[in-house]
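Q: Start with the shorter request: fold the first protein.
A: Done. Sequence, then structure:
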Amino acid sequence: MRSTQIRTLFTDYFTSRGHHRVPSSSLIPDDPTLLLANAGMNQFKPYFLGETIPPFPRATSVQKCARTSDIDNVGRTNRHATFFEMMGNFSFGDYFKADAIAFAWELLTEHFGLEKDRLWITVFKDDDEAETLWRRIGVPASRIQRLGMEDNYWSMGVPGPCGPCSEVNYDRGPSFGKEGGPAIDGERYVEIWNLVFMQFQRGEGDKKGNFPIIGELAGRSIDTGLGLDRLAAILQDVENVCSTDLLLPTLDTVQNLAGRPYPGEGEEKVSFQVVTEHARSIAFLIADGVLPAKDGRGYILRRLMRRAIRHARLLGISGPVLPAATTSVIGNLGGVWPELHTQTALIEQVVTAEEESFTRTLAQGTRLLNAAIGRARENRSAALPGETAFELADTYGFPLELTVEAARDAGLTVEEDRFATLLDEQRRRAKAGGKAKTVEALKKMDTYRELATDLPRTEFVGYDHLRAEAIVKGIVSGGSVVTTASEGAQVELALDRSPFYAEAGGQIGDTGTLTTGGGTVVQITDTRYGLEGFRVHTGRVLRGELSTGDQGEAAVDGDRRKGLMRSHSATHILHAVVRATLGDHARQQGSLVEPDRLRFDFAHFSALTADQLAQIEATVNAHVLDDPYVRAWYADRVDAEAAGAIALFGEKYGDTVRIVDIGDFSRELCGGTHVAHGSQVGAFRLLSESSIGSNLRRVEALTGHDALRYLDTERRLLNELSGLLGTRPAEAPDVLRKRLGTLAAAQNQLSRLRAEELRHQAERLAGQAQPAGEGRLVAQIVTGVTPDELRGLSIEVVRRVQRGPAVVVLGAEHEGRALLAAAVSSDLDQAGAEASQVLVEAARTVGGGSGGRGPIASAGGRRPNALRQALALAAQDATRLLGER
């Protein structure tokens, strides 16, 4: 059975049983505790936590997941992957264990046709109910095993919903390992479906990883996950996930690049599977907006790419591997996941650039590693320091495995324990920082949940109104829910109705005031989402006392909102123009929408030229002047995307979405506020363009009043400049260019004259050389020279001194400091003499230090009055140096 049939059969089965089919969310989750979507339940987390009322009691999905916790197992087992499609069915307070178990058994045995006597079940050790239900459905007790917390109890790893789980495992037969059931680790019993019975709420864990159960969830729920890769391997009767139709075309591509067949065992098997499997992960991550970076999800992508490249090199593939491998992924899976086709150009550009870059990194790392091996041999050490291996890995991205291999070839070992310690310390530091942020965010969310327990979600009226009558439904102050807040208190407010836009989609939150009927005034300084659909209005009580239940008028700062609307509409227009100018790959990767100012990040592979920037700015302004109509409308998400609406990476959308059209050239899913007509954007002015990461560019721009003020400033500056030049503004550039050319010619002439003057001075000084030791010495104070000129002069003098070894020491005063320079002749240099030897005492005398290696050195200090004494000491040291020859 092909993978497309498996997906269809699964979703059709559950939709026919009352489940609402939900599209996969992006791999970039709308969850601050996660870097990447790693489970089918991620997008439903607010439903399980009770933050949002689910729009349907049952759901089913095929979710894209990325999980790198088992990255080292890829290729070493038959079942592990860093990207996978998780098929799941979910119940939000609807059915529970009995139905979940019945659904799974029926689907696997009657629809997918798996032999009943090859299915093994594991349940949580204390879950008598689950075992009873499995036995009632026909599974004999001999094929049901009870396991502990590590295997059969599920949680998110942070405070939240949790519960026991039951796993369905498939016996692949004796050729895959010994008998004993899934309790025995190995390849024979493959976990294919995990049924999680979410019924409890967990609290904060202790240092040992234990966590308390703090209560039951309001509604017992179901979360299941059936891995498509693993089920496909069974149904297609192949050994591992890379041999299924999901990955086989990519494996064939890697075999062609390597020029030999996949061996099926040994270290080469691992490398073939790593390149194949990682290519799929890489393509999907880039398609969903992840770009290589030094940290976060970008680091995960970079690690996958570098690991794939390294294993390709181990297979002897010296040329590019990722472009061809990811292209095969697109060709194979693009029909099911159209974002792969949409982002083909971006994927190709990113993997090509990253592979070229890492190839250079491998070369640089090899040079550094060879130098470290050389030092180890000189020191007669048997091992490379763990610090060296860590620096190569952490700073240069040079894998530990390559360091170990190269050291072994040189007859050395690597202090891998020390490397592991350093790596663990780094991970603990990163985890501690991330955990602190996560705990703080979770505590705030707990406060919001307490506040919102009995409150309806905020009714947003801000698309049509900047003022609205509102009731204070809740107050948070000092991190706790309170009923009153006094004058001067910092507060977070929940209102029943609000015209304030909460920060989302790059647009910052509204500000304004809340004035109650009793005369209390609250200054609103920011508006954000607390829980989904629940706005939090941050502010300060300016006058009076605020209490829960107070009624008043909420008023948005209208001028500020207009500036935000201008910038947000300009961002949409800019996005359309950038894609039209640079290509479809140049999609928005982030934005910041402020009053009359915007920042726009997009994927691209090189700096934009002045002509491209000018074209983009002119085209945006042309669209604005055409005064296109701006229209917001609502539709089913599938219909909206079919109509060409662009969904932005990392944004969260429901089934019903809001679409914003600007003329006939821009259509995006967007919940932000916009102008009614394009001309209301006003002037648009690009300020800058820069790189903010690998393959990621940023432009900043002004709109409306800020753009006009900026243009006004530019005009005043041009008028002032043309006045200084004595010409008209239009002629100022040509006049300035001519004068700069004249000035440059004069400076060149002065430089030539100065060089000639210094040559004459060098001849005079060389002629003053005196016998000293076994050679000749020049020790003089000169005037009117810069530090660079003094060094150059000393070199020129020593070249001109004839008859044997020579040392030149020159001193000068420059800008209140003492300067010294020394040079030794080439024969002294070849004999190992260092010019710095003659300046050590002299430098101390002028209150400074010396520097330089080989035939030239310099010194400086803050005591110019000691210059003659210092020169005399340098002359003595030079004489001794010459006497040693």
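Q: Next, the second protein, separately.
A: Sequence, then structure:
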Amino acid sequence: MTRSLRTRTAMRGVLAAVVIAALGSFGLSSSSSAMPAPPRAQTATATAAAGSAAASVTATPDPLAPAGEVAQKPYMGWSSYSMQVYEPTPGGWITAAQLKAQSDAMHRTLQPFGYEYINIDAGWNGGLDAYGRPVPSKTLYPKGLQDVIDHIHANGQKVGLYGIPGISDETLKADYPVFGHPECSTGDLAVKPHQPGDYWGFGHRMDMTNPCSQKYIDSIADLYASWGVDFLKYDSVTPGSGKNDLSMDARDEVKGWSQALARHKIWFELSWALDIKYADYWKQWANGWRVDWDVECYCPGEALTNWPSISRLFPRAADWWRHAGPGGWNDLDSLLVGNGKMDGLTKDERRTAATLWAVSAAPFYLGNDLTKLDPYGLELLTNREVIAVNQAGRPAQPVSTKTNKQVWYSLNADSSYTVALFNLGATEADITVNWSDLGLTGPADVRDLWAKKNLGEFGSAYTAATVPPHGTRLFTVKPERKSTVRVNDDDLRVSYTGDWQRNGNREVAAVSEPLKVTVTDSAAAGRKAAEKAADAGVRTVDLNNDDSQIVYTGSWSRSTGRGYGDHQDDVQFTEKNDDAFSLTFVGTGVDYVTEKHESQGDVDIYIDGEFKQTVSTHQAEGRGAQQVVYSISDLPNGTHTIRGVKKSGGYMLLDKLTVRQVSLLNPDSAGFDKNPAAQADVSTEIARDPGELAGITNAGKALVEGTDYTVDGKIVTIKKQYLATRPVGTVALDISFRGDYHDDVHATTVNGAAVEFTFKGTAVEWLTALGPDQGEADVYLDGKLVRRVNLHNDTRVTARPVFAQSGMKDNPHTLRIVKVSGEVLRHDTVRYTLR
């Protein structure tokens, strides 16, 4: 079952309700065990004597990057939060005895496989000391938290704590002196007038322009380091955490904590549902960031999670994959697959979740009770080949999210591929991975990582038979000799120096547009052919709710023949919060069209992974059919994704999505008369370079150039001999145009900016865009300038080979491309040949 957003965030708030003192980060009440504050003028020496377990006084640190050296791989371990939700103890918190038991269980069963973190979530503390710093709960830890930390460390493990942004009213009013800095006090640390600091409203935003705020954060980070803390989860971070509109903004505090923790090499993890719009900021200042809502279903005593909570992560992973890598990782939340009795998932769903976490290079941390892992859970969690996929740190990307039979892949440093097949549908299915979709040409060996066996060599594809509903397969695909590997511009193996941007409206997407020909026969019907011409411009395309391009996540159903005025008399609907639809399209805008009714509520809308707004589909009286509840029209012409997520109400419906596209045909419709006396060729002018024309098809069958159609400059002519074979009615001839590889490029406007790629092989080729805004680039191989290439062209064209080198020794080589002139340099792909 799925709880509502309101219920879920309320329960999160309950579990964080004691997180209201000091920076709000410490899960305590300032009155519970606070020591009286000494006089503000007390010296640093006296202050140090009064404090307990305090770190030495340090000056305000110079700006530091996060402790990236501790985050070269996704971390592995366990977090207390899920158990607190599932089996709350009296008071709702995990005790010292439970933490020690989890640590011991991990030490016995999982630690040999790389699991090492024991992270203590909300509720760990019980008050403040005389300097506004957290004091651990004496109720939960009668022998002290240090005793628990020492126990965990003695097991060879690392310890994490929990916090949230902001500073509470109690801490402001108490006006504590800052440890080591008696000139500073906590009463001066909030932004004025006060602004909310966290989602639940426990505290106020800190004023990071006041140097004392950084000193206060430093004092607490130093205290944590003195305890031996290795990790800090920083929750309710905004933009994100249900607040993406900048009404709350914790970015300055994130930076402050990052600088304080980096001095101690403490892992810094952000939570929850971070706004992808600020991905570069999170990457600069943190080691990990949650990309979506809690994975828990909030079903106390019933289950930890459920399938909708897993399936909704796929589109988020598709949005975020390119933002992760050594130093910082996309966090999918706790992996809850260790015990079938409490997980809430079938065996197939448990393995699918483990596979998604593995191929996404997401932190591999559990939430189950480690003392109750079942044999299947242990099998999932201790498969060394699957763990190796996770620890390789190569986040996978989907070939397409327009299907429930999804193929995800990543390119490894040794030129092999990790490939995961996911059946997100409700019936078993065969799933095929084509090597060409990976960028691979040539045969390859396939190994099944879950089964731990080699499957053999396959020429151009592999099909996994009867993948069960919500099931998965996981493979290593290793190219054979003489195969070629094509590497996209956003692959982790590609590095950039200088100011580069992905796309930025400099990309061209592959697209097709129908030339609609109305075929008549005046000889048979006694009338003349009708011809309709339309000028090129913006055209709209209606996609009904049952269109195969729309991907539904969760438990959706289709209702037909309702008689309420729906588009094509049907709708798709769901009753579960967090269920979602998504559509990836090429165009400049899209409308979400649905019914409005009293039984319906709010829907969150995302465009290209960025939250846009919450729209209401509620109507107090009556029923409104085909209502446009969200519309956007100013997108750059290219590939985009709209995603709608149910947040409230009894139902969420989708009737249709209307896409706006730039027309590439003038005209985009015509008429043809089959009467032999009236037959004539049909011509249209294309708006793209003729070299970008990929082909023409009708009902999936390709027309033959020179026989069925001709191309003369930008004029495409459909031959009358072909049209005469078409039946009377409307014939849609799909005219397809190629685009940049994967519909994206990286671009720079700075001379001297460079892109670099290291590979092992015997030949290499650079394929990229040409255009009127481009100039020259220098190409280096292994540090030597080998060629200056001219990328200027009168029209914008895609994927053109501009440099090639063969006959190389089978050694590691480095290709480096440097911008020399022109307005912009675009980088698309590199292709290299294996020995």
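Q: Describe the second briefly.
A: The chain has five domains: 5-30+72-391, 398-480, 488-507+742-833, 511-537+663-738, 543-658. The longest helix spans residues 211-227.
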